[in-house]
Design a protein that fits this description.
The protein is mainly alpha-helical and about 120 residues long. The protein is built from five helices and no strands.
């Protein structure tokens, strides 16, 4: 990891923690605000630690883009949780063989960048 990339990752981490400290829930209830703040901080800590050992520049770039997308979506919609994705038609087919591989490929293509790490931690 280059020094510039390291600086960018640390800057993103600090930004997420600042957002968590100042976050206010849409419902304006104190318990919702605290729950969402805790979720933001724990999710960031989990994902950043999980990807700490990644050295491939392309993977690092993908993770940085994912983090930026999740920040922007969370701030825009005032919702810290990942937005749902919608599977393509026949996305839950249980057939085996070629059709199953095709469905898996379609599901992978339909997954937005801001959810790339979400399934790994859930």
């Amino acid at each position: 990891m280059t020094a510039a990339t390291r600086q960018e990752v640390l800057s993103l981490y600090r930004r997420v923690l600042r957002i968590a400290r100042t976050w206010k829930a849409q419902s304006a209830l104190l318990q919702d605000t605290e729950r969402e703040r805790l979720y933001i901080a724990e999710e960031a800590q989990t994902l950043f630690r999980q990807n700490k050992q990644v050295t491939d520049p392309q993977s690092i770039k993908t993770y940085i883009e994912e983090c930026q997308a999740r920040i922007e979506i969370g701030l825009h919609y005032r919702n810290p949780y990942p937005r749902p994705t919608y599977l393509p038609p026949m996305g839950l087919a249980t057939q085996k063989g070629r059709k199953l591989r095709a469905q898996a490929r379609l599901r992978k293509q339909a997954k937005p960048i801001y959810l790339e790490s979400h399934d790994e931690t859930s």
